[in-house]
Amino acid sequence: MWPDFKGYRQSAIVLAVCVVGTVMNHVACRADEADTKLQQALQGTYEPIDLSLFRDSIHHWQMKDGRGRNDQRYRPEQIVHIAENLLRYQNADGGWPANLDWLAEIDVEEIRKIRKGSLGRSTFDNRNTYPQIEYLARVYQATGLPRYREAAVKGLDYLLREQRPTGGWRGKDVDAITFNDDVMVGVMRLLLKIRNGSADFAWLDLPLRARLDRSLEQAIDATLKCQIEVNGRKTAWCQQHDHVTFAPVRARTYELPSITPQESTGVVRFLMELPHPSPEVIEAVESAMAWFEASKIEGLRIKTVPITPVRFEGFTAKIDRIEVQDPQAPPIWTRFYEIETNRPFFCNRDGIKVYRLADVKLERRVGYGWYGNWPVHLKTDVYPAWKARISTPVSP
Predict the structure, then answer these.
(1) What is the distance between the alpha carbons of residues 305 and 102, in angstroms, rounded to a whole number?
(2) Distances in Å between the alpha carbon of 66 and those of 62, 87, 95, 328, 358?
(3) d(Cα 364, Cα 362) in Å, to the nearest integer?
């Protein structure tokens, strides 16, 4: 007698329907459980997580796209609400657009309308993407919700994909190794935290840890190769360097190839955070500190004076800045120094170099940081402590 294939088929169909139904019910139950846990987390009370690295992005939002708005904002202790914002604004590639208020209660579609259809492409500019990764990792540690771990991993994958073969990451304005806005230093500091065993990333698996560790080594190597050498002596760094030649390159029209003490201060501070500095790292630090000392400006004070407000596209100028001779003024540095002569200079948006702050037009004169005391803290506190640390013999 022939087997009843029709009966078999009917039984198989019934069994398949039962299996699919069971799976779907299981998935639905898991989804309901995850949603319940999320709702409970949203109602929870947590210790605030450091938001300092978000300040630059928030400031740019408030100065431009968010200017004149009065949005409700989450409190620092509402870490799950803030983390949900980060998930909403994360791009499909795993990174984040810059210059948003991560604490503001704003619908994603409203931001897209403000920005003419897009949140913006992912970038590390204005201290971006690596702060989101670290924040989400800490929220995952506090809540145990996998959604934040998964988003942090997507961010780390984006970070690894964006690193060039020579070890650098680009900013938003130019495709070059970027030290401006802490692009390189910010990413490397995150990778160093992971290498040093930060509890916030204790959940990372070994293969991903190994990839991140290799990424950090490549980045440190690129950083050392970027240090500018003049007449056989190492000095400091430019804001941007070529990916292949490591030579200084121009970024925005008013950011010409130069030696830049602000960005170089961040680089040196990071290099001094390395627990076991190589001879190459030690030489880089010592050379940069010598350049800072040789390049300081004494007897000059920058005076801020109020003016009738002038509205520009990106901000409203309410003050002006002027140079004043003052023998009692503490040392300061300019943003840019000529590479060959070490002469301080400034620049307008037309790309024309000038040598007096008064020759910079108002919009750039007050809308950019031309003078600062950036290396002072290194010289007085960080560098002496670093020297003492590397001079102390390591116990066997």
Answers:
(1) 33
(2) 4, 20, 21, 41, 31
(3) 5
pLDDT of residue 19: 47
CA dihedral of 172, 150, 217, 56, whole degrees rounded to 10: 40
Q: Could you report the per-residue pLDDT of 181-230, keeping only the tens digit for each?
A: 999 999 999 999 999 999 999 999 999 999 999 999 999 999 999 999 99
Asked whether 262 and 369 are in contact (CB, 8 A), the reply is yes
Digit-coded pLDDT (tens) for 148-190: 999 999 999 999 999 999 999 999 989 999 999 999 999 999 9
Cβ 318 vs Cβ 356: under 8 Å: no
CA 115 – CA 97 distance, rounded (Å): 11
Class of domain 227-391: mainly alpha
Left (φ > 0), alpha (ψ -120 to 50) or beta: where does 49 sit?
beta
CA distance 228 to 233: 8
pTM comes to 0.89
- Cβ-based neighbours of 195, under 8 Å, separated by 6 or more: 212, 213, 216
SS3 293: helix
Angle among Cα 295, 299, 305 to the nearest 5 degrees reads 110
Q: Six-digit token pair at 150?
A: 């998964």
> Token pair 């657009």 is at which residue?
97
Distance CA 310, CA 317 (A): 5
